[in-house]
Amino acid sequence: MQYSVIIPAHNEEKSLKPLYEELRDVLSGMDGSHEIIFIDDGSNDGTWGQMEEIAAADEHVRLIRFRRNFGQTAAWSAGFDHARGAYVIVLDGDLQNDPRDIPRMIEKLEMDDLDVVSGWRKDRQDSGRMVFLSKIGNWIHRSVTGEKIHDHGCSLKVYRRVALHDLELYGEMHRYVTALLSWKGFRVGELVVAHHPRKYGDTNYSIKKKLKGFLDLIVVKFWIQYAARPMHFFGLFGVVFIAAGLVLGGIISVIWILQITGFADSSLPLLAVVMVLVGVQFLLTGVLADVVAKTYYLEKKAYSIKTLRGFDEIASDK
Protein backbone atom coordinates (compact mmCIF):
# COMPACT_ATOMS: atom_id res chain seq x y z
CA MET A 1 0.00 0.00 0.00
CA GLN A 2 1.48 3.33 -1.08
CA TYR A 3 -0.99 5.97 0.11
CA SER A 4 -3.44 6.09 3.03
CA VAL A 5 -5.76 9.08 3.09
CA ILE A 6 -7.48 9.79 6.42
CA ILE A 7 -10.61 11.94 6.46
CA PRO A 8 -12.31 12.58 9.82
CA ALA A 9 -15.84 13.95 9.55
CA HIS A 10 -18.43 15.21 12.01
CA ASN A 11 -21.77 16.17 10.46
CA GLU A 12 -20.35 16.62 6.95
CA GLU A 13 -23.17 14.88 5.07
CA LYS A 14 -23.17 17.21 2.08
CA SER A 15 -19.40 17.54 1.73
CA LEU A 16 -18.33 13.90 1.59
CA LYS A 17 -19.29 12.90 -1.94
CA PRO A 18 -17.82 16.01 -3.65
CA LEU A 19 -14.66 15.57 -1.57
CA TYR A 20 -14.44 11.87 -2.42
CA GLU A 21 -14.84 12.56 -6.16
CA GLU A 22 -12.06 15.18 -6.13
CA LEU A 23 -9.81 12.91 -4.10
CA ARG A 24 -10.50 9.87 -6.32
CA ASP A 25 -9.49 11.84 -9.42
CA VAL A 26 -6.24 12.95 -7.75
CA LEU A 27 -5.32 9.49 -6.46
CA SER A 28 -6.08 7.81 -9.79
CA GLY A 29 -3.38 9.96 -11.38
CA MET A 30 -0.74 8.97 -8.83
CA ASP A 31 1.49 5.91 -9.03
CA GLY A 32 0.87 3.21 -6.45
CA SER A 33 -2.11 1.70 -4.66
CA HIS A 34 -4.15 3.67 -2.18
CA GLU A 35 -6.83 3.50 0.48
CA ILE A 36 -9.23 6.14 1.76
CA ILE A 37 -10.19 5.91 5.43
CA PHE A 38 -13.33 7.83 6.37
CA ILE A 39 -13.91 8.29 10.10
CA ASP A 40 -17.38 9.20 11.35
CA ASP A 41 -16.73 11.09 14.58
CA GLY A 42 -20.15 10.61 16.16
CA SER A 43 -22.18 12.44 13.52
CA ASN A 44 -25.92 12.87 14.07
CA ASP A 45 -26.87 13.60 10.45
CA GLY A 46 -26.55 11.44 7.33
CA THR A 47 -22.74 11.39 7.32
CA TRP A 48 -22.47 7.65 8.01
CA GLY A 49 -24.99 6.81 5.30
CA GLN A 50 -22.97 8.81 2.78
CA MET A 51 -19.82 6.98 3.82
CA GLU A 52 -21.51 3.61 3.36
CA GLU A 53 -22.67 4.57 -0.13
CA ILE A 54 -19.16 5.65 -1.12
CA ALA A 55 -17.62 2.47 0.33
CA ALA A 56 -20.14 0.26 -1.47
CA ALA A 57 -19.03 1.70 -4.83
CA ASP A 58 -15.26 1.76 -4.20
CA GLU A 59 -13.20 -1.10 -2.76
CA HIS A 60 -10.43 1.34 -1.81
CA VAL A 61 -12.63 2.98 0.82
CA ARG A 62 -12.52 1.84 4.44
CA LEU A 63 -14.76 3.12 7.21
CA ILE A 64 -14.42 3.73 10.95
CA ARG A 65 -17.40 4.82 13.03
CA PHE A 66 -17.10 6.13 16.59
CA ARG A 67 -19.81 5.45 19.15
CA ARG A 68 -19.92 9.15 19.96
CA ASN A 69 -18.10 12.37 19.16
CA PHE A 70 -14.55 11.96 20.52
CA GLY A 71 -12.99 14.87 18.63
CA GLN A 72 -10.50 15.38 15.85
CA THR A 73 -7.48 14.17 17.81
CA ALA A 74 -9.11 10.80 18.50
CA ALA A 75 -10.15 10.52 14.85
CA TRP A 76 -6.59 11.16 13.67
CA SER A 77 -5.28 8.62 16.15
CA ALA A 78 -7.71 5.95 14.94
CA GLY A 79 -6.76 6.69 11.34
CA PHE A 80 -3.04 6.45 12.10
CA ASP A 81 -3.58 3.13 13.89
CA HIS A 82 -5.36 1.60 10.91
CA ALA A 83 -3.46 3.16 7.99
CA ARG A 84 -1.38 0.75 5.89
CA GLY A 85 0.23 3.10 3.37
CA ALA A 86 3.86 4.17 3.26
CA TYR A 87 2.55 7.75 3.03
CA VAL A 88 -0.25 8.84 5.37
CA ILE A 89 -2.26 11.87 4.26
CA VAL A 90 -4.75 13.73 6.45
CA LEU A 91 -7.29 16.30 5.35
CA ASP A 92 -10.57 17.70 6.66
CA GLY A 93 -13.92 16.51 5.41
CA ASP A 94 -15.41 19.98 4.89
CA LEU A 95 -14.03 20.68 1.38
CA GLN A 96 -11.79 23.49 2.64
CA ASN A 97 -8.61 21.50 1.96
CA ASP A 98 -7.82 20.86 -1.71
CA PRO A 99 -6.86 17.26 -2.64
CA ARG A 100 -4.98 18.60 -5.67
CA ASP A 101 -2.26 19.82 -3.30
CA ILE A 102 -1.41 16.25 -2.27
CA PRO A 103 0.93 15.38 -5.20
CA ARG A 104 2.90 18.60 -4.66
CA MET A 105 3.26 17.84 -0.97
CA ILE A 106 4.53 14.32 -1.64
CA GLU A 107 6.96 15.72 -4.22
CA LYS A 108 8.31 18.18 -1.64
CA LEU A 109 8.55 15.38 0.93
CA GLU A 110 10.78 13.39 -1.41
CA MET A 111 12.81 16.24 -2.90
CA ASP A 112 13.67 17.77 0.49
CA ASP A 113 14.06 14.40 2.25
CA LEU A 114 11.40 15.27 4.83
CA ASP A 115 9.31 13.06 7.09
CA VAL A 116 6.33 15.41 7.30
CA VAL A 117 4.98 18.17 5.08
CA SER A 118 2.40 20.45 6.68
CA GLY A 119 0.04 22.64 4.71
CA TRP A 120 0.18 26.41 5.14
CA ARG A 121 -3.15 28.17 4.50
CA LYS A 122 -1.46 31.44 3.61
CA ASP A 123 -4.64 32.87 2.08
CA ARG A 124 -7.13 31.51 4.60
CA GLN A 125 -10.80 31.66 3.61
CA ASP A 126 -12.47 31.89 7.02
CA SER A 127 -14.14 34.59 9.07
CA GLY A 128 -12.00 37.44 10.35
CA ARG A 129 -12.43 36.24 13.94
CA MET A 130 -11.13 32.76 13.12
CA VAL A 131 -8.19 34.12 11.16
CA PHE A 132 -7.28 36.50 13.98
CA LEU A 133 -7.47 33.77 16.64
CA SER A 134 -5.48 31.44 14.41
CA LYS A 135 -2.70 34.00 14.00
CA ILE A 136 -2.49 34.46 17.76
CA GLY A 137 -2.47 30.69 18.28
CA ASN A 138 0.26 30.17 15.70
CA TRP A 139 2.40 32.90 17.26
CA ILE A 140 2.04 31.38 20.74
CA HIS A 141 2.80 27.94 19.31
CA ARG A 142 6.01 29.11 17.64
CA SER A 143 7.08 31.05 20.74
CA VAL A 144 6.55 28.14 23.12
CA THR A 145 7.83 25.23 21.00
CA GLY A 146 10.42 27.02 18.87
CA GLU A 147 8.91 25.38 15.79
CA LYS A 148 8.94 27.41 12.55
CA ILE A 149 5.71 26.06 11.04
CA HIS A 150 3.43 28.99 10.14
CA ASP A 151 0.10 27.16 10.30
CA HIS A 152 0.09 24.35 12.84
CA GLY A 153 -3.72 24.18 12.73
CA CYS A 154 -3.89 23.12 9.07
CA SER A 155 -5.17 19.54 8.88
CA LEU A 156 -3.74 18.87 5.42
CA LYS A 157 -0.48 17.04 6.10
CA VAL A 158 1.55 14.25 4.53
CA TYR A 159 3.54 11.87 6.75
CA ARG A 160 5.86 9.00 6.22
CA ARG A 161 4.19 6.24 8.20
CA VAL A 162 7.39 5.53 10.15
CA ALA A 163 7.06 8.98 11.73
CA LEU A 164 3.73 8.02 13.30
CA HIS A 165 5.06 4.99 15.17
CA ASP A 166 4.50 5.33 18.94
CA LEU A 167 2.84 8.73 18.50
CA GLU A 168 0.36 9.15 21.36
CA LEU A 169 -2.43 11.70 20.85
CA TYR A 170 -5.11 12.91 23.24
CA GLY A 171 -7.00 16.10 24.10
CA GLU A 172 -6.38 18.62 21.29
CA MET A 173 -2.92 17.24 20.50
CA HIS A 174 -3.61 16.95 16.77
CA ARG A 175 -2.57 20.61 16.55
CA TYR A 176 0.90 19.80 17.84
CA VAL A 177 1.80 16.65 15.90
CA THR A 178 4.56 18.43 13.98
CA ALA A 179 6.06 19.78 17.22
CA LEU A 180 6.07 16.30 18.78
CA LEU A 181 7.63 14.79 15.67
CA SER A 182 10.26 17.53 15.50
CA TRP A 183 11.13 16.73 19.13
CA LYS A 184 11.60 13.08 18.14
CA GLY A 185 14.05 14.15 15.43
CA PHE A 186 11.87 13.86 12.33
CA ARG A 187 12.32 16.45 9.59
CA VAL A 188 9.28 18.70 9.17
CA GLY A 189 8.59 21.09 6.31
CA GLU A 190 5.64 23.08 5.02
CA LEU A 191 4.10 24.05 1.73
CA VAL A 192 1.60 26.77 0.84
CA VAL A 193 -1.72 25.12 -0.03
CA ALA A 194 -5.10 26.25 -1.27
CA HIS A 195 -7.89 26.95 1.18
CA HIS A 196 -11.55 27.20 0.20
CA PRO A 197 -14.52 28.77 1.99
CA ARG A 198 -16.79 26.34 3.80
CA LYS A 199 -19.74 25.41 1.56
CA TYR A 200 -21.91 23.33 3.85
CA GLY A 201 -22.64 23.16 7.56
CA ASP A 202 -21.08 25.04 10.42
CA THR A 203 -17.53 25.05 11.65
CA ASN A 204 -16.62 22.97 14.71
CA TYR A 205 -14.02 25.58 15.67
CA SER A 206 -14.68 27.41 18.94
CA ILE A 207 -13.02 29.52 21.63
CA LYS A 208 -13.47 26.61 24.05
CA LYS A 209 -11.44 24.32 21.80
CA LYS A 210 -8.78 27.00 21.44
CA LEU A 211 -8.45 27.23 25.22
CA LYS A 212 -8.22 23.44 25.51
CA GLY A 213 -5.57 23.49 22.82
CA PHE A 214 -3.58 26.09 24.76
CA LEU A 215 -3.61 23.89 27.87
CA ASP A 216 -2.40 20.96 25.76
CA LEU A 217 0.37 23.22 24.43
CA ILE A 218 1.69 23.54 27.99
CA VAL A 219 1.81 19.73 28.21
CA VAL A 220 3.57 19.55 24.84
CA LYS A 221 6.15 22.11 25.97
CA PHE A 222 6.83 20.11 29.13
CA TRP A 223 6.93 16.84 27.19
CA ILE A 224 9.36 18.18 24.61
CA GLN A 225 11.83 19.51 27.17
CA TYR A 226 11.45 17.32 30.22
CA ALA A 227 9.70 14.06 29.28
CA ALA A 228 12.77 11.93 30.02
CA ARG A 229 14.08 14.10 32.88
CA PRO A 230 11.17 15.71 34.79
CA MET A 231 13.36 16.02 37.90
CA HIS A 232 15.31 18.76 36.10
CA PHE A 233 12.11 20.82 35.90
CA PHE A 234 10.63 20.22 39.35
CA GLY A 235 14.03 19.98 41.03
CA LEU A 236 15.02 23.46 39.83
CA PHE A 237 11.96 25.00 41.49
CA GLY A 238 12.56 22.89 44.59
CA VAL A 239 16.17 23.99 44.96
CA VAL A 240 15.26 27.66 44.41
CA PHE A 241 12.49 27.61 47.04
CA ILE A 242 14.58 25.70 49.58
CA ALA A 243 17.59 27.97 49.07
CA ALA A 244 15.44 31.10 49.36
CA GLY A 245 13.77 29.75 52.50
CA LEU A 246 17.09 28.86 54.12
CA VAL A 247 18.61 32.24 53.26
CA LEU A 248 15.57 34.07 54.67
CA GLY A 249 15.61 31.86 57.74
CA GLY A 250 19.33 32.49 58.24
CA ILE A 251 18.88 36.27 58.03
CA ILE A 252 15.99 36.12 60.49
CA SER A 253 18.07 34.01 62.88
CA VAL A 254 21.01 36.43 62.77
CA ILE A 255 18.74 39.41 63.37
CA TRP A 256 17.06 37.61 66.29
CA ILE A 257 20.38 36.52 67.86
CA LEU A 258 21.77 40.05 67.62
CA GLN A 259 18.46 41.31 69.05
CA ILE A 260 18.19 43.94 66.34
CA THR A 261 14.43 43.49 66.21
CA GLY A 262 11.80 40.98 67.22
CA PHE A 263 9.55 38.86 64.98
CA ALA A 264 6.64 38.27 67.34
CA ASP A 265 4.20 40.09 65.05
CA SER A 266 5.97 39.22 61.78
CA SER A 267 5.08 36.51 59.29
CA LEU A 268 8.62 36.30 57.90
CA PRO A 269 9.61 33.22 59.96
CA LEU A 270 6.48 31.43 58.74
CA LEU A 271 7.28 32.49 55.16
CA ALA A 272 10.77 30.98 55.44
CA VAL A 273 9.35 27.68 56.71
CA VAL A 274 6.66 27.61 53.99
CA MET A 275 9.25 28.25 51.25
CA VAL A 276 11.36 25.31 52.46
CA LEU A 277 8.29 23.06 52.62
CA VAL A 278 7.18 24.11 49.12
CA GLY A 279 10.70 23.37 47.85
CA VAL A 280 10.60 19.90 49.41
CA GLN A 281 7.21 19.31 47.76
CA PHE A 282 8.68 20.23 44.36
CA LEU A 283 11.56 17.81 44.92
CA LEU A 284 9.17 15.01 45.89
CA THR A 285 7.02 15.77 42.83
CA GLY A 286 10.16 15.56 40.69
CA VAL A 287 11.04 12.17 42.16
CA LEU A 288 7.53 10.83 41.50
CA ALA A 289 7.53 12.27 37.96
CA ASP A 290 10.90 10.62 37.34
CA VAL A 291 9.51 7.27 38.45
CA VAL A 292 6.52 7.71 36.14
CA ALA A 293 8.80 8.67 33.22
CA LYS A 294 11.03 5.64 33.77
CA THR A 295 7.94 3.40 33.93
CA TYR A 296 6.68 4.92 30.67
CA TYR A 297 9.98 4.30 28.92
CA LEU A 298 10.23 0.65 30.01
CA GLU A 299 8.53 -0.35 26.76
CA LYS A 300 9.31 2.81 24.81
CA LYS A 301 12.56 4.43 23.85
CA ALA A 302 13.57 7.99 24.61
CA TYR A 303 15.05 8.26 21.12
CA SER A 304 14.08 7.69 17.49
CA ILE A 305 16.46 5.92 15.08
CA LYS A 306 16.45 6.91 11.42
CA THR A 307 18.87 4.29 10.06
CA LEU A 308 20.36 1.00 11.27
CA ARG A 309 23.16 -0.84 9.48
CA GLY A 310 24.93 -4.07 10.39
CA PHE A 311 22.24 -5.26 12.80
CA ASP A 312 20.60 -7.93 10.59
CA GLU A 313 21.88 -10.89 12.57
CA ILE A 314 20.86 -9.38 15.91
CA ALA A 315 17.42 -8.46 14.59
CA SER A 316 16.87 -11.96 13.20
CA ASP A 317 17.65 -13.50 16.58
CA LYS A 318 14.92 -11.52 18.35
Give a description of the structure:
With 318 residues, this protein is α/β, with parallel strands linked by helices. It has two domains: 3-225, Alpha-Beta Complex (Spore Coat Polysaccharide Biosynthesis Protein SpsA, Chain A), CATH 3.90.550.10; 230-296. It is built from ten helices and seven strands. The chain has a seven-stranded mixed sheet, with helices on both faces.
Q: Any idea of the CATH class of the largest domain?
A: Alpha Beta
CATH superfamily of the largest domain: Spore Coat Polysaccharide Biosynthesis Protein SpsA, Chain A
Main beta sheet: 7 strands, mixed
User: SSE order, as H and E?
Assistant: EHEHEHEHEHEHEHHHH
Q: Could you give the distance between the termini?
A: 26 Å
Assembly annotation: single chain
Shape: elongated
Number-wise, the strands total: 7
Order of strands, main sheet, comes to 3-2-1-4-6-5-7
Beta-strand percentage range: 5-15%
Radius of gyration: 25 Å
Q: Write down the domain tally.
A: 2
User: Poorly predicted ranges (pLDDT <50, ≥5 residues)?
Assistant: 313-318
Summed up, the helix count is 10
Report helical residue fraction: 40-55%
CATH fold-level label of the largest domain? Spore Coat Polysaccharide Biosynthesis Protein SpsA, Chain A
Instruction: Briefly note the structural class of the backbone.
Output: alpha/beta
Mean pLDDT: 83
Q: Assign the CATH architecture of the largest domain.
A: Alpha-Beta Complex
